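Chapter summary example.
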Amino acid sequence: MAYDLKDLTEVMEAETERGVPSPDLLATVRRRVRRGNRLRAAAAAFGVVLAAGTAFGVVQGQDGSGAQKREVLAPTMAGVTNDAFPKSRSVEGLKPLKEVRFSEFGPIARVTFTPTGVFTMYTARCDRDATWYDIAPQGPGSGGCGSEGYLTTTPGVPVTLETTVLPAAAAQALGDRVTKGSLERYLSAHGTMSGAWSLRVYSGPCVNECQVMRRMRTEPEQPPLSGLKQLGHATGIADGRDRPVPLKERGKALRLRVTCLDGAATAVVRIGGRAKVVDCEVGESQGVTWDQDAAYVTDAIGIAVLPAEAGAVNNTDGAALARQMRGAKPAGRWTLDVYAR
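The structure predicted for these 341 residues follows.
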């Protein structure tokens, strides 16, 4: 099969974006927390309606002074600040901080704000069905308009979000495996599109998500994947079924990453007769990475992923997982990557 310059460019961009940012930058890029189906079900008891999906990007100066400057190939745009927004009602104990309105889809928007608390939430509101993209240093993320993102922040230290919104049809054409380069090329080629949206930011103490946020603030950084040889890769729907993932070569000392999106919540990973339960939903688009040694050299990994609706996994037996899926609908997507270490 022949490869052209575009193929090479996309591969190089993808590999570059998998690299690990400097420790100083990692300290300023706040961790993401996805609001899953379990949280939505719990909140429903209190009359709170939550939207699915989370998407956000954070760029903060390494000296704490605000936005980092970086070259952007795609067009950018300025919005209009809604001065009345700070007087609106609080959400989950977080006070309204800033709303910036935009009159078109497509160009990249930069919104800088100064948090007033250690917890910050923001949400995109759109006039029609659309997808919201972040332009984060570690690579793009995406979610539906109406979704909410959570950050742990330092009061008084400015944070800049880089985002863009595309109509649903355009997002579908762009596909799921989006790199920073492919997104910016798409935006440059297609220009502005009809649509209006806004980004709303809230900050302060948190009344509903604080336990999850505190756990995310204190958990250690995940082990890196750059420089490791990939042995296996698989994707699927969270339906509770066991799937074998063959490895390109036999291995024993492994590093694995499971990524769960859009309602996929819990993975059961089987290696050499041992099962590990992974709460992959909290990792959102970054996934959950860990090291594991097989009891003996193996040439395959087993995985079953359940949606949030199925509840917590207490028994990893295949028959037990099948029983747990009764009444639960398959939902969400998962990805497993296996590396030799």
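To summarize the output: The chain has a mean pLDDT of 75.
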